[in-house]
Specification:
Layout lengths: L2 E6 L3 H13 L3 E7 L2 H11 L3 E5 L7 H9 L6 E6 L5 H6 L4 E4 L4 H11 L7
Parallel strand pairs: 1-2, 1-3, 3-4, 4-5
């Protein structure tokens, strides 16, 4: 199964780098990029991703408010939160995120986290 991924982050350079990284890996299709929470929620409705890579400090709605709204959407995508603040991992998981990825970790660990989600990701 190819995972349909939507990347949500406030910095264009970071989103582009993630897109390029994922395009080189097998089994992933980046279906969109969102720069803020409003754009993210709109794209989840129209692009139907299996997985959302969510920068925790995404402009717009705070992460703790955004996550329940995102998870309540039709299709309920798997959410992997990205942050450079590892102390947030328990908070993020308690809020309903499937996984947490510390941006200080090697990129290959993100691929491993994505591959682990394939069983839990909703099929379109």
């Amino acid at each position: 199964m190819t995972l349909r991924i939507l990347i949500a982050g406030g910095y264009s350079l970071n989103r582009s780098a993630l897109r390029l990284f994922l395009q080189e890996a097998r089994g992933f299709e980046v279906v969109g990029e969102a720069a803020d929470s409003e754009d993210l929620l709109a794209q989840v409705q129209t692009r139907h991703p299996n997985v959302v890579l969510l920068e925790w400090e995404l402009p717009g709605m705070p992460g703790l408010e955004l996550l329940p709204v995102l998870l309540g959407r039709n299709g309920r995508p798997v959410v992997i939160v990205l942050s450079g603040r590892p102390e947030l991992e328990q908070t993020v998981r308690a809020a309903g995120a499937h996984a947490f990825f510390n941006l200080g970790e090697p990129p290959k660990r993100l691929l491993a986290a994505l591959r682990e989600t394939q069983e839990d990701a909703p099929l379109e």
